[in-house]
Amino acid sequence: MVTHFVVHEPGDSVGVIVVEGVKKGDKLNGWVMDGNQSIDFETLNDIPIGHKIALKDMAVGDTVIKYGTDIGKVVQPIKRGEHLHVHNVKTKRW
């Protein structure tokens, strides 16, 4: 089975796409490294390799967790399976 995205820790709210060509509606398989588990769901957007995918619904103001670390805040609502990038997540630094 192909691994489409990788999640580092079970508490992370995002995974990282590790294959080319992820398209809206694709059924994806993700690997949670810590615990060696897999998760499956459908993507809601095309997502480029190296970009993030939401593992859960998030509201404006929620904290995004990757590698068990706060990487920013949600500035537009995000649904599970959506692309996370600069259009819906911003750093908390400024």
Automatic annotation (TrEMBL):
The keyword Translocase does not apply. One of its GO terms (molecular function) is sulfolactate sulfo-lyase activity. Residues 13-90 form the SAF domain. It is an enzyme of class 4 (lyase). InterPro entries: SAF, SAF_UxaA/GarD. Its EC number is 4.4.1.24. Pfam families: SAF. Keywords: Lyase. This is (2R)-sulfolactate sulfo-lyase subunit alpha. It comes from bioreactor metagenome. The gene is suyA.
